[in-house]
Design a protein that fits this description.
Layout (H helix, E strand, L loop, with lengths): L11 E5 L3 H9 L4 E4 L15 H13 L3 E6 L8 H10 L7 E4 L2 H10 L5 E3 L8 H9 L4 E3 L6 H10 L5 E9 L10 H6 L17 E4 L2 E7 L14 E3 L4 H6 L4 E4 L6 H20 L8 H8 L6 E2 L25 E5 L4 H9 L5 E2 L2 E8 L3 E2 L3 E6 L2 E7 L3 E2 L8 E2 L5 E6 L8 E4 L4
Parallel strand pairs: 1-2, 1-11, 2-3, 3-4, 4-5, 5-6, 6-7, 7-11, 10-12
Antiparallel strand pairs: 7-10, 8-9, 13-15, 13-22, 14-15, 15-21, 16-20, 17-18, 17-22, 19-21
Helix pairs in contact: 1-9, 3-4, 5-6, 9-10
């Protein structure tokens, strides 16, 4: 097939949905599609994931909003697991899942056998790094190819130029990276008996290590790269918010965010930032300018040091290994705005508390972390960066005033000087 030009298309924004709460957050904050897993056969078994019944409900919820849901079946199951896989596929046959993300050829064959109309997306676990590999999977019936993280922009464009127009490319644009090539790692299985290739990775690459000389076991030697500790295998996190034009120009059809095990706050904020950036680019490609506030939003979530993955660096020259221990913690997630409650509003009125006055309006929230009078907070809304305000009034459902909302999942009312809608997120403001 000869190399040719290709049409630049508006990319899909694909967000992680480790459970129903995260699915709702992803869709509310701008995802065009979500990816999730059942209780087995997904590469993130430690996520909450979905039962069969929940998958049916999740697909309906997603489709009702005009969005898509993809199911991950990207583990490498052993032979004795296939009967369970067959049962699972038969159980979800009528769920109307939009596509199945697979890595194993046996799984791909079984899906096509039991669900002949199913759309197949080949997982990044398949390590597609060439036009030849991409075309081979297309010949087997793949509709979309999730590219290996180890590719640069030029290599992705070369793959795109060799593919038919109706075959899509998907690539990760944000989130954790694995030091092992495309996530193919045996370290977890060797050290803990939990197979990373069947969704149970314990991330031993993030641990600190010490060398012992054979005849001197009492003289441990730390493996040090810096004075802060050991980072010989721990990857940085990917963040490409500054490179939307290059991602689009590469011919990527779906921009994928990693993080099914992260919080709903992470899902909402990261999806929101990329939604704003993508929309800004397509509103005016020639006049597009990167907004540093988008980066500030991404700095507010839990993450390791950021890098641009391998889009701009050869992994052999720069392995993108971390230089800091652990995570850079996210801002405190105070609360989520909920439905208006007339009974509670009436109780506030009985105590002569004004729902709306010159200082703003009282809105109803469900607590996630303690928030108290005097806090500087920010409100996150779809397609908006954090807006700061002071927490000056807190009321309980019985209408009484409170100094704080200290209890998990408690309901409280707080005055905010601008409009708040259901699903908006209140977080710590300032430099916290």
């Amino acid at each position: 097939m000869s190399i040719r030009s290709f049409e630049i298309k508006r990319p899909e924004l694909l967000s992680p949905a480790g459970n129903f709460e995260k699915l709702r957050a992803a869709l509310l904050y701008g995802a065009d599609a979500v990816y999730c897993a059942g209780q087995s056969f997904g590469m993130r078994s430690a996520a909450d994931n979905f039962t069969v019944e929940e998958l049916y409900e999740a697909v309906k919820y997603t489709h009702d909003r005009g969005k898509k849901l993809y199911l991950t079946l990207n583990t490498m199951p052993h032979g004795d697991e296939y009967e369970d896989l067959k049962k699972f596929l038969r159980d979800i046959a009528d769920a109307q899942i939009d596509a199945f993300i697979v890595a194993d050829l046996g799984v791909m064959t079984l899906v096509k056998e039991l669900l002949p109309d199913a759309e197949i997306h080949v997982s990044t676990q398949a390590s597609i790094v060439s036009p030849e590999a991409a075309l081979a999977y297309v010949a087997l019936g793949a509709k979309r190819l999730v590219l290996a993280r180890e590719l640069c922009f030029e290599e992705i464009r070369a793959i795109r130029e060799r593919l038919p127009d109706d075959v899509e490319l998907e690539a990760f644009i944000h989130g954790s990276m694995c030091v092992s090539y495309s996530g193919r790692c045996m370290l977890s299985n060797m050290m803990t008996g939990r197979d990373a290739n069947r969704g149970r990775c314990t991330q031993p690459c993030r641990w600190n290590y010490i060398v012992y000389e054979e005849k001197r076991p009492d003289l441990p030697i730390p493996i040090e790269q810096t004075e802060l500790g050991t980072f010989i295998m721990s990857s940085k996190d990917m963040c490409t918010i500054e490179h939307i034009p290059e991602l689009v120009a590469s011919g990527i059809n779906s921009f994928k965010i990693e993080g099914r095990m992260k919080s709903a706050y992470y899902t909402a904020v990261v999806t929101n930032a990329y939604r704003m950036a993508i929309d800004a680019y397509f509103a005016d490609p020639e006049g597009y300018r990167f907004d540093p506030e988008w980066q500030r939003e991404l700095e507010s979530v839990s993450h390791r040091e950021y890098c641009t993955g391998y889009y701009l660096d050869n992994p052999m020259d720069n392995a993108q290994l971390g230089t800091q221990t652990g995570y850079i913690r996210d801002k405190a997630y105070f609360a989520t705005a909920t439905d208006y409650n007339d009974v509670e509003a009436a109780k506030l009125a009985e105590r002569n508390v004004e729902i709306e006055n010159k200082d703003g309006r009282l809105y109803r929230f469900v607590q996630r972390n303690k928030v108290k009078i005097g806090e500087v907070a920010e409100m996150i809304s779809p397609s908006k960066i954090g807006r700061a305000f002071s927490v000056n009034e807190i009321y309980l459902p019985d209408g009484s005033e409170a100094e704080s909302a200290p209890h998990p999942s408690m309901i409280f009312w707080c005055r905010v000087p601008f409009e708040v809608k259901e699903g908006d997120i209140m977080r710590a403001g300032g430099d916290q």
